[in-house]
Amino acid sequence: MDVKEAIDKRRAFRSLEKTEIDEKLIRELAKSASLSPSCFNKQPWRFVFVKGRDKLEELYSSLSKGNEWAYYSSMIIAVISEKKLDCIVKSREYYLFDTGMASAFIILRATEIGLVAHPIAGFDEDKAKKILKIPDDMQLIAMIIVGKKSSKLNSELSDYQKKSEKERPERLSFEKFGSIDEF
Ligand SMILES: Cc1cc2nc3c(=O)[nH]c(=O)nc-3n(C[C@H](O)[C@H](O)[C@H](O)COP(=O)(O)O)c2cc1C
Known about the structure:
- The protein is of the alpha+beta class and 183 residues long.
- The protein has helices at residues 3-9, 23-34, 53-60, 95-113, 125-132, 159-166, 174-177, and strands at residues 16-17, 46-50, 75-81, 88-89, 92-93, 116-120, 139-149.
- Residues 11-12, 14, 67, 119-122, 142, 168-169 line the site of flavin mononucleotide (FMN).
């Protein structure tokens, strides 16, 4: 699969089924993240790869309403960083930008491997940080829900969620987000 195909194939699917996750896969995804660019090569990202059954079950309890589809995941990747781990150029803070890029590398590599890797913001940060023993001063930015796409539609999804399993949510036209030479 080339990069274009991975970009095209990646979707935030919500109909998942369990699959085997081993340490080789985790290290492969982590390697992809570590090859991502970062300001002065600061590599501000930190990831907790949660795959143990008990820990996963505990982490599910931190998910927001509407994210129950993630109970069928086989791994959750906690995406973590902290402002002071990366460059601050004048007032521009780069930790979220760099950690987001590394996360995108993980998501695309997971797609290439044939997995769903669906980022979410819908969780209770304090609760999840306690469960994963993330230090207080670090930010749990997102979770990446990893699993195998189920051939069956998850009947517990909302109508909106069911619709977006079938067709990709609409994107802005180039004219709305891009311009050439000037803003
Ligand atoms: C930062 C971020 C937070 C998101 N939070 C959630 C979430 O809490 N629950 C959910 O079901 N999807 C979540 N999504 C997935 C988006 O809804 C999805 O990417 C978007 O609708 C576009 O669909 P597509 O990724 O399949 O193209 C999130 C995506 C991102 C990047």
